[in-house]
Specification:
single chain, mainly alpha, two-stranded antiparallel sheet
């Protein structure tokens, strides 16, 4: 019988060892390949290409944080010939592209800067010419007041006093309020459509606002005990003036109504303009009352210092005569008769006036730039800074404010400002300013009842102002 062959024993393969060998071999091969590619002696062309691409990646990362190139620069880059396929020339090609793009970007930036400089020069030239024309109208109005028939028989020394007092207090400010009347009229009717008489009347009405401003400031400086105004001693601080200034601010207000009579007495708008100025003066006087009684001399109650109280004060004391009055006066001259237009103007201008305040400049402004020495802390003013501080301060910080706010001592003032610094109020005000500007801009853009430029020109003058 034939013997059957026995089957071979079953062989077992250790798969884990196989995978270990395989993976180890692949890793070694990868490492050798990378080393070879980056070895300039073995593969010089590949090494140069890799180095060039590393430089390109680094420049691309830097470009992400740089200003975006203009469309014309991108177009110029698109017109460049394709990258060379020869690896030896790759680095030079990338360098040439980067240099061309960088040079074009610098050239475009320089061109934009020059265009902005030229535009600024033109704008400054136009503003200087407009301001000169405005000041020329002041000289005319002042002479009319000095030659007023109602003053016939007055001694020359009285007329000389009036002239000096007017020149010292009326034309020395920024003149933004007064010049805004012409801007509003030009925005509505078009500057090219205005006659010389239209321009003169707009500027005369603007000077009535500047006279009103002078009246308020001379009186306010006495009440607050201020030291300087517009870079010079307050009028009442001059040795020969003193409390004669009380009569002078009455004269300043009276001049408004003489000018209105001289130039608008026979106009259909005369009654409307009289009412506008009288109403604005009444509102502003009540704002001053709120300002003074919130912190009566010798009795400071910081519990009354709230953001609501602050907004009431600035609305009545500043917003109506600084913003609404110039706009409303321009609307009257333009013949605007729609009540809705005046209500819209009042709404936007009041909001603008609540945002436009001297609080920040009073505390942080340079007296040489803003033209006065800030005394809000010494005068215990209910202002944005202290209202915000009281809202956010710790109990310890509040105690510092309570102990030092309203004190005339420079050391006490420094302690209050130190709390302001601890709370970061300067940066908080900047954020508040930016937010207010954005909200106002959106409101102006959304309305369609009046030309947007009526409000934009005013807003541009106060945003991030330095004085």
């Amino acid at each position: 019988m034939t013997q059957m062959a026995k089957p071979l024993p079953k062989q077992y393969i250790d798969k884990s060892k196989v995978w270990t060998v395989f993976i180890g071999s692949a890793a070694s091969l990868f490492i050798l390949t990378v080393a070879a590619e980056n070895n300039g002696a073995w593969f010089p062309a590949i090494a140069r290409a890799n180095a060039a691409m590393a430089v390109a990646r680094k420049r691309a990362e830097q470009a992400e944080n740089a200003p975006q190139a203009p469309a014309d620069i991108e177009a110029e880059a698109d017109d460049l010939p394709p990258l060379s396929i020869e690896s030896a020339a790759l680095e030079a090609e990338i360098e040439r592209r980067n240099a061309a793009a960088e040079a074009a970007m610098f050239a475009a930036a320089a061109e934009r800067a020059e265009q902005e400089r030229q535009a600024k020069l033109v704008e400054e030239g136009l503003f200087a010419a407009k301001k000169k024309a405005f000041l020329d109208v002041y000289a005319t109005l002042r002479q009319e007041l000095l030659d007023d028939k109602m003053l016939e028989g007055q001694p020359q020394e009285a007329k000389d006093w009036l002239k000096e007092m007017l020149d010292y207090n009326v034309p020395g400010g920024k003149l933004n309020r007064g010049m805004a009347v012409y801007d509003v009229l030009a925005s509505i009717k078009g500057a090219e459509n205005l006659s010389k008489d239209d321009i003169f009347k707009a500027n005369a009405l603007g000077w009535c606002i500047e006279w009103l401003q002078a009246f308020f400031l001379v009186a306010d400086d006495i009440m607050d005990g201020s030291i300087t105004r517009r870079g010079q001693p307050c009028w009442y601080k001059r040795p020969k003036v003193g409390m004669v200034a009380c009569n002078d601010y009455i004269l300043l207000e009276c001049c408004i109504y003489r000018i209105l009579k001289f130039h608008f007495g026979g106009s259909a708008a005369y009654g409307q303009l009289l009412e506008l100025f009288l109403e604005t003066t009444y509102q502003t006087s009540h704002g001053q009352l709120l300002d003074l009684t919130t912190a009566p001399p010798g009795h400071i109650d910081l519990s009354r210092y709230s953001m609501d109280a602050y907004l009431r004060i600035v609305t009545y004391k500043t917003a109506f005569y600084t913003f609404y009055l110039p706009v409303a006066a321009g609307l009257v001259l333009a013949g605007e008769a729609r009540p809705a237009a005046f209500e819209l103007a009042k709404s936007i201008c009041v909001e603008m006036g609540q945002y436009f305040q001297d609080d920040y400049l009073d505390c942080y402004g340079d007296p040489a730039v803003i033209g006065k020495i800030g005394t809000d802390v010494e005068d215990a003013k209910c202002c944005w800074l202290v209202c915000t501080a009281l809202k956010e301060a710790s109990e310890e910080q509040k105690d510092v404010i309570k102990a030092n706010y309203g004190q005339k001592d420079p050391a006490a003032v420094a302690k209050v400002k130190e709390v302001y610094a601890q709370l970061g109020l300067a940066s908080k005000f900047e954020a508040y300013e930016a937010q207010s500007h954005a909200q106002l801009s959106a409101t102006i853009e959304e309305q369609s009842l009046l030309p947007k430029q009526v409000f934009i020109s005013l807003l541009a003058k106060i945003y991030k102002r330095q004085k």
